[in-house]
């Protein structure tokens, strides 16, 4: 089915309701240049093309009538313009005739003037030729005079004035010289003269390169020497400050503090060196237009010299030649710094930095290699000190020396390991040579060097001489070794990349005290040949050394420039202090073991005791008397050497061990039986030992210790055992109340084992002493009850 055609708007495309095209619309479209296609199409679709054609014809006629009206309006003006043009043409012909007449008159008058003008021109030409001849003569004369002056300057080696004169001749005179021969001669000779000047200054510069290399070493040595002097002055100031601080710590009255001004201005005159040949060569080459060429020549030659200076022969001793090596490099860069600041653009900062990077890399390589070969701490320290002075010197000139200082930091562990090795040998030798007797000081200077120098004194009052120190000779010797270690450690770490290096020194100091000194002392303590008196003295020495740790920390802080008030804090103390304190316990334990071993030797004599004597011993057992005599010699010695807490620990341990050994003697399998007389003898021994214990407790001052317990309490087990078998009713041991009160230290199994060995005395021995018939029964009852309880 076909769709219905769309209905057209009656007024669309300019059509009227009756289908005829509007004339105004057609005229408007034609005037505006619009497309008439839609109108024509609409006319044909409506079947009225004649009407459209008629309208177009009417439009043409309308336009033709407009053209005719326009021409009619402007016709009169056009005729008027033509008339005016004809009048102008007439005036032009009159003017032409007037000009021709004036020209003829001018020609007649000008002929006479032209003749006079020709004569004047000829005169002027003659004058000009004469003037030019005079000028040419003057120019040639001036040029010859300048040439003479150039020759004089060249003869006097005044190259810059000679160049300026030659430039003036080229610029101002050669273009004006009328003589071709003279001009050509000058054009040939001036380049030759310039080449002569360039060669002369180049030769002078080459000589300077040779001389400055030998001068550089002196410059470097003098500059490093100035840095060394400045460092010494700084150390003197620090020493005075440390002394003042020490006096302040000890509350010294009338202490005057003054600020001294020290002249720190360095004498730069010793660092002067001749750079005139460099300035001159650079300036002349700049004037010759060869500035870039000379700068490149200078840089390459100086780079070759630096590479030569940086080479170090493996056949040479670095320890002997390191100062020459580093001073040569220092002098080189001091000279380059002066040149870069004073010679203009001869060498740039970036080029100098490039040379420094080359030198720095090579110095680092050489230093690392040589440090790896060194096995002596002192050698490392000597080289390190000079390198630090080199860095301090070149840092003033703006060179980055951090990487070189980092090499020193990388080798600090090796240096301290070598230093620790040396200290270990020295300490071992000192301990091996010590007789472990108290040090006797007879002179004032000995007291100052061995006691006051390390703050080992118990009081600031000077003692009477001879003075018996509480330590042996190895203590001040070890303190001297530690003090030297601190000084060497600070010397190596000072003036490095770390400004605050106290913590590093403290770390190595702890390592020395813990891994070297403490281990050496423990090694001696663990020795199988160690005597009791030696063990006591070592323990006393360790007490003094532990107390001296505070002095070592303060001394290290003073050398590092750290205020002592920061070191006196408890948290800032050395870790070695607690380690040495712990080792004192090991020494006390070792001493106790040695004493116990000696006690065991005496207690072994119990094998020879008659455990069933007919009569009780009159004065106790003989072995026990010998034991008392031995303890009587050990306790006073320990009292003089050990502190109260250690003394109490040792004596208590020995007495407790004796008590245990007495009980063990009853339990010994070789003791098959014992009687009351043996118990009475053991009671006499215990009473004697308890009496000595009470005496030691009072005379040694142990009663002054807080919470101190009487030494006789250490013998409680043996005393309660003897009391049990001396009692008439041993079965009371089974009574919990009585046992807790009188026999709390006894073990039931031990009591059973010992009670089974008890035998009553025969009847014949009761003639003098009445017999207690119930005692044996009581003991038998005790044995039965104890067996039943198990």
Automatic annotation (TrEMBL):
Keyword Transport attached: yes
Gene3D superfamilies per the UniProt record, alphabetical: Dsl1p vesicle tethering complex, Tip20p subunit, domain D, Exocyst complex subunit Sec15 C-terminal domain, N-terminal subdomain
Keyword Cytoplasm: yes
Domain Exocyst complex component EXOC6/Sec15 N-terminal residues, every copy: 55-223
Main subcellular location: cytoplasm
Domain annotation Exocyst complex subunit EXOC6/Sec15 C-terminal: ranges: 403-757
Cellular location(s): Cytoplasm, Cytosol
GO CC terms: cytosol; exocyst; membrane
UniProt keywords, alphabetically: Coiled coil, Cytoplasm, Exocytosis, Transport
Protein name: Exocyst complex component
Biological source species: Ceratopteris richardii (Triangle waterfern)
